[in-house]
Amino acid sequence: MKKAILSAAMMTAIACTAVAEQTITIDGSTTVGPIAKAFAEYFMAARPDVNITVSESGSGNGAKSLMNGVCDVANLSRPMKSTEFKAAAGNDIQPVAHVVALDGLPILVHPQNPIQDLTIDQIRKIYTGEITNWKEVGGPNLGIVVITRDTNSGTYETFEGLVMSKQKITEKAEYVGSNGAIRQRVQTTPAAIGYAGLGFVDKTVKALKVNGVYPSAATVRTGEYAIARPLFMYTNGYPKLGSAVYQFVTLYLTEDGQEMVEEIGFIPVTSY
């Protein structure tokens, strides 16, 4: 990813509010992590008085960090749950959501797999273990290797909600801890199937059409692609106007922020 160039206007707007050295601690989703890291690099170039740390422990852990007052910004690739809001309120934390990007959840297979298209129903049956061989959906005679995310992941919960329809994933599925790990497992395993954020698709894996629609920025933006979601940054209350946290979590609204989101492979929520 090429580095976003600091626009003169944004550099001035951020830098002119510089104060004594401060920190912003960020934790959570591995999907939102690349956005947070790009924003952090950009922000610290303009504000050397601010130190930003980004951890990727998963959406569930990000929510816990925010509700326990351990982080300033929690990255989540799914909305906070009512139970999390309740737990946060018990600690006098008021989570506020900032939708920083949109994301599709492509279904990934090895590039040598001839399959091009699956339906939601076929994907569900593969993940429940009802379909176990690629030949059952028009592919080669290979037993399917099912790869899924860890249950603490927002990506897992999105897939569970949009694809699984409350059915359990097969006990034979392999669980991995990040989008990158899904991609790595699929790219090295000809019989594998997995899913990851749109920004993790590259030439080492093949994204399938779902219900006849290919996952892309255009089809996610229009709602044509069925497996899609917003990506969130949560703060404790709405940040004070002009504060470092406010400037950070509103970067997605700027042209530079949109450029970074697009370079990483996600879809901006606004356009100029």
Description of the molecule:
By secondary structure, the chain is α/β, with parallel strands linked by helices. It has two domains: 128 residues, 3-Layer(aba) Sandwich (D-Maltodextrin-Binding Protein, domain 2), CATH 3.40.190; 117 residues, Periplasmic binding protein-like II (D-Maltodextrin-Binding Protein, domain 2, 3-Layer(aba) Sandwich), CATH 3.40.190.10. The protein is built from ten helices and twelve strands. Strands 2-1-3-12-4 form a five-stranded mixed sheet. Strands 8-7-9-5-10 form a five-stranded mixed sheet. It has a two-stranded parallel sheet with strand order 6-11. Helix 6 links the parallel strand 7 and strand 8. Helix 2 packs antiparallel against helix 10. The longest helix has 14 residues.
Provide a short characterization of the protein structure:
This protein folds into two domains: 128 residues, Periplasmic binding protein-like II (D-Maltodextrin-Binding Protein, domain 2), CATH 3.40.190.10; 117 residues, D-Maltodextrin-Binding Protein, domain 2, CATH 3.40.190.10.
- How much helical structure, as a percent, in the residues? 25-40%
Categorize the overall geometry: globular
Number of structurally distinct domains: 2
Determine the N-to-C terminus distance: 21 Å
Number of strands: 12
Contiguous runs where pLDDT drops below 50 for at least 5 residues: none
If you consult CATH, what is the topology of the largest domain?
D-Maltodextrin-Binding Protein, domain 2
CATH class of the largest domain: Alpha Beta
Biggest sheet, strands in spatial order?
Answer: 2-1-3-12-4
Radius of gyration: 20 Å
Q: What is the element string, with H for helices and E for strands?
A: HEHEHEHEEEHEHEHEEEHEHH
Mean pLDDT: 92
Largest sheet: 5 strands, mixed
